[in-house]
Amino acid sequence: MVGRKGIVRYVRPLIFAALIFLFCVYWEKLFSQSGAKEIIGTLSDCFLIPGVMLAGAGGISWAAKFGTLDMLSFGFKSFFGHFIKSLSADMPRTFYDYKTERAEKRKKWHSETLITGLVFIAVSVLLLVVYSVI
Description:
Layout: H1 4-8, H2 11-27, H3 36-65, H4 70-80, H5 85-88, H6 95-105, H7 111-133
Helix pairs in contact: 2-3, 3-7
């Protein structure tokens, strides 16, 4: 059974997805369209956009959990540390030290973002199937 705290985690991604969806509906002028096929096609597109955005962010969060982006972060901080001294003030000298320090501070990944995005993509695919049948 999912507790209250588990459900609350999904509120923020759902609000974000709903806002992007409503913006897309407004942008595509869904309520001025006349044919059912055209409306379902537009709805499919409007569900796909926030789905891809959230699933992409969730996927990056999942990849970052394993330290995949540590080398990129270390490289940028090392390079820009030559120009911005506040970046290199507490920077470890080697990548190994940086990676172990990051591993200790690593946060949990945002699974709710990935799941919400995948649900929106699934609804979009379902609408696309309906669109192709009509």
